[in-house]
Amino acid sequence: MLIVHAHPEAKSLTSALKDVAVETLRAKGHEVQVSDLYKMGWKACADGDDFTDITQPDRLQYIVESRHAFASGTQSPEIEAEQQKLLWADAVLFTFPLWWFSAPAILKGWFDRVFAFGFAYGVGQHGGERWGDRYGEGVMAGRRAMVIVPIGGRAPHYSDRGVNGSLDDILWPIQHGTLFYPGFEVVPAFPVYQSDRMENENWGKVRADLKDRLDQLFTMPTIAFRTQNGGHYDAHQRLKPGLGAGAGGTHIHLLQSGDPVETVPRPARTPR
């Protein structure tokens, strides 16, 4: 298991949840690695220092250099180390607070740098109804991912009619666009609301609920995102007519009862 942790304070609720996850998973016999980004001093900005061999020194084209570096083994050592942790893990947990409707910048920078061209994107056949090994396929296929996200606001604020919008929509860029994209099977998020006003008596319940969720990490249903290459999208990667009826927004990209069976197999892995 890999835990990618993004909070600057070791005594925070977010860090306490990370510690519970480590303790619970190790007690169940899992091997656990932790990438504590603030403790590591992780560089958030993607730039030319990410590559030890620049092919075009006069003008940085990050995608071009990322592709070359991954293919030639000239990525910075810290990027390659994180990629190896991902390949080792059978599940990845992301622990971070919800800041301005997203993750802290340091975690965004981890994705920007670690999810390199040729590793997490830009892979597979591109053409016709198939446009790469993505959205259900890719290097992370067969692995599970889950976000553990403390939130300062109240749960009703993040409901379907809440003023902040539904949490599913807020987390869509992370869960669908970042995790499902390279193939992760995404377990529903574990939010903790009113995290900055939690009383001691409530911590026991949150801790117990997280332990229970981790017990189900490999058995509970994952979010039913449609796979890109499973037959539901056309040559322009648009959802085919007749699918998504009765749903709106991003929810049309969730499998619904009565949909045709997807043709993309989902590989299984034995958890460590």
Automatic annotation (TrEMBL):
Keyword annotations from UniProtKB, A to Z: Oxidoreductase
Sample GO molecular function, one term: NAD(P)H dehydrogenase (quinone) activity
GO terms under cellular component: cytosol
UniProt superkingdom: Bacteria
Occurrences of domain Flavodoxin-like fold (ranges): 2-206
SUPFAM superfamilies with a match to the protein in the record: Flavoproteins
Keyword field contains Oxidoreductase: yes
UniProt-listed Pfam families: Flavodoxin_2
Ranges where the record places region Disordered: 246-272
Family that this chain belongs to: Belongs to the NAD(P)H dehydrogenase (quinone) family.
Protein name: NAD(P)H dehydrogenase
Species per Swiss-Prot/TrEMBL record: Thalassospira profundimaris
